[in-house]
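Recall that a protein's primary structure is simply its ordered list of amino acids. Everything else, from secondary elements to tertiary packing, is in principle encoded there. The following example makes that idea concrete.
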Amino acid sequence: MSDAVVSTASGADAQAMTDWIGRRLAQMEAWLAARLPADAPGGLAEAMRYAVLDGGKRLRPLLVLAAWEAVADAEPAPEAPVWWAAGAVELIHAYSLVHDDLPCMDDDVLRRGKPTVHVRFGEALALLAGDALQALAFEWLVAPAWAQREPALAVALARELALAAGAGGMAGGQAIDLAVVGQRMDQAALEDMHRRKTGALLLASVRMGALSAGADAATLAALDRYGRALGLAFQVIDDVLDATADSATLGKTAGKDARADKPTFVSLLGVGSARAYAERLLAEALAALAGLPAHATPRLAALARWVVQRQH
């Protein structure tokens, strides 16, 4: 991921961003590996770890950490609440992928460059692994020692994640997605679906990082604008890549939206216009950062650029 993120930077700034991403990705992977269960019964632990570890872009935890650093302008301590927030967001994302890939949903066999969880472990265990990951995400926000010392922060983070994951967010967006197969949607309806299905969790990632650092209302408002634009841009480019890239590049099955006759930004706008729209959303995201202190912008800006310029 790091090479793509810094592709528009140069010199010392590019190297600093590459170093930051590499360090944070390694820290996040080790953090998750140390805290995911190793002894849950009936093969559940193995399925949960398979779903989360050794794959994925980790964009959501990187956004949590970048937003925290944008507000705090410091290194997060090893047991700081922001790590638990980043981990919880990644668990919700991983659980959603496990369930989305099931035969009753998108019926996919490839995810993150390897067989999907239900292919590897069977449908029943995949369903349970997703359930357990969702529950563990909220456990990580309310059970650790820091949550007992800072209950207001724990509640605020759990609230953000619940709203993003539930009927008003990711789950509701997925329900719309299933209901509109074979139908045409106008751009406003398509955007509403994807602000829920994809954008809500990306926005929550930014907000949870900022809240963990004690962001004030004005900073949160700016980061909200950034997160909303970035979340929609991510889905626009996802639709473009589904239509133009191959499965080996994506690490998941390519072209499945067209085969399933799902409305997408590509089916509505065409590839070229969809890319142009993503660029306009990128400009919105970067403009939202303009009023923040200088130290706050480089990492969030680089992640937004990666979202639009990525090839997988």
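Residues 83 and 162 are 18 Å apart (CA to CA). The radius of gyration is 19 Å.
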